[in-house]
Structures are given as structure tokens and as C-alpha cells.
Amino acid sequence: MNNREASHARDGQRLGQCVPRLRGRPREPQHPAPRVQGAGANNQAASALVAQTLSFRCCSPDEYRWAHLQMGLVMVLAAGTLGAGGAVVAAPFVLGAAGFAAAGITAGSWAAGMMSAAAIANGGAVAAGTTVAVLQSLGAAGLGAAATAATATGGGAAAALLALLF
């Protein structure tokens, strides 16, 4: 057992953990808080107690990087899961707001403008399989199993990517 392992064993900590712990005995702070005129004794005593008793048991830089990486992965997975669920829930509302309703395309909406442009481009009709036709069928019939899976995948991937970037 090397010195670092012996130190961790003495402290009762497992290797690889970066956890806050309470010190066994209070000691004088290295940088005491400045005295403020008019401040109550209770406030000074409380801040001194916090400064004296809380400390962080530091890990090696590699252990800290690994813990930081694990936390980042947890955040990306959580964001991806929330993004997938949010996309599935929001998709019908977004389709309806865009004008793809159950009764058809709403007049004067963004969907109506899209349909008009597609009809002009195709000589007066909207071709099957185009974006307008697919969105109209999703708005009218709702999301099927395949569309729900695709929406969840896209929403989860977008949220995970945003979590990685920010």
C-alpha cells in the first residue's frame, strides 16, 4: 500500500471519491473573516463555524477529471431523456400551431403558405410523400409508432447535443 492509499484508508474514504466531509476537530481558519462593525455576534459565529467545519477532501487531478466526466455524462443522459419526452409531448401542439389540424390545413396559417408553395411548384397539386403531405397526415391522424420513435430520437439527440455544447 503506497502513501496515498494509506492516507485514504486512514481517512476512511474509498479511492476515487471527491466528497465533502466534516473535519474531526475545529481549528482556526487560515484566513479569518474580516470584522464588520455593527454585525451581530451570531452572524460572525455562524460564518466562522461554516468556515472552520466544512472542507473538501481533494482528489488527484485524474480522479477529479473522471468524476467531472461522469457528471457530464449523467447531465447529457438526463437532458436527452427530457428532450425525447418533451419532443413527443410537444409535437402535436407544434403541428396544430403551425396549421396542420385534424380537420385539415388551417386557412391563413404557415401550413397553408407551405401547401400553396408546394402546389405551385408541382403544377397545382401537392405530391405524395412531400414534407407538406407528411405533416398534413401527422396533423390529421396524429403520431404513429414510427413517428413517435423518430420524434423522440430527434428531440433526445437535439437536447443531448445542446447539453454538450452548453
Order of helices and strands: HEHEHEEHHH
SS field, number of helical segments: 6
Mean pLDDT: 76
Shape: elongated
Low-confidence stretches: 12-29
Which structural category do the helix and sheet elements fall into? mainly alpha
Helix content: 55-70%
Largest sheet, in brief, is: 2 strands, antiparallel
Q: What order do the strands of the largest sheet run in, or round the barrel if closed?
A: 1-2
Rounded radius of gyration (Å): 30 Å
First-to-last CA distance: 41 Å
What is the count of distinct domains? Answer: 2
Counting DSSP E segments of at least 2 residues, the number of strands comes to 4
Description:
This protein is mainly α and 166 residues long. The protein folds into 2 domains: 18-58, no CATH class; 63-165, no CATH class. It is 63% helix and 6% strand. It has 6 helices and 4 strands. The strands form 2 sheets. The chain has a two-stranded antiparallel sheet. Strands 3-4 form a two-stranded antiparallel ribbon. Helix 3 (61-98) crosses helix 6 (145-165). The chain is elongated. 13% of the residues are buried.
Q: Keywords for this structure?
A:
166 residues, mainly alpha, 2 domains, two-stranded antiparallel ribbon, two-stranded antiparallel sheet, 6 helices, 4 strands, 6% strand
Short description:
The protein is mainly α. Helix content is 63%, strand content 6%.
Please write out the topology.
Elements: H1 3-11, E1 20-22, H2 41-53, E2 54-56, H3 61-98, E3 100-101, E4 104-105, H4 110-121, H5 131-141, H6 145-165
Antiparallel strand pairs: 1-2, 3-4
Helix pairs in contact: 3-6
